[in-house]
Amino acid sequence: MDTHQSQESDELQIAALFLSFSCTKLDQMTGHLAACLGRLSDAQIWQRGGAHENAIGNLVLHLCGNMRQWIMHGVGGQPDLRTRDLEFSAATGHSGSELMKLFRSTIGEATTIIAATTPAHLVERTTPQGRDVTVLDAIYQVVGHVQQHVGQIILLTKQITAQDLDLTIPRPR
Question: Less Cβ crowding at N or C end of the chain, within 10 Å?
């Protein structure tokens, strides 16, 4: 194998690792979210500490809207149908199980698109939210965004339930 072929092989392997890890991380966050929503009542999912805060339900709706805009639209080429303000103005309406079903469905669609992304497509340009980014940037943005807000949901769940969730290695108490 010559140097050029070796470099191409390395680039394909790196692209495959990035895409696979992105899907794995989104699946992991889905499990963490399910653990949180499973511990909370519907009232707790929609509670806010003040008008300046988002309820857990709002964050779940927001994550689904963001994935639709950045992955389904930005990467997959589907129409951009997002109404961002509705994600934050909702005060109730979805039960925990409905939110989890919506999130799983959205993650499933997003990871299908991510897994089918070719290495050549990763460097193409897209404009979700009017931002000129590469497809790789769009995927990376979504994975980080999901981790950020699921982390907030984990913290809120710990505060609401006054319990550790033992999402990683259980610690002796």
Answer: C
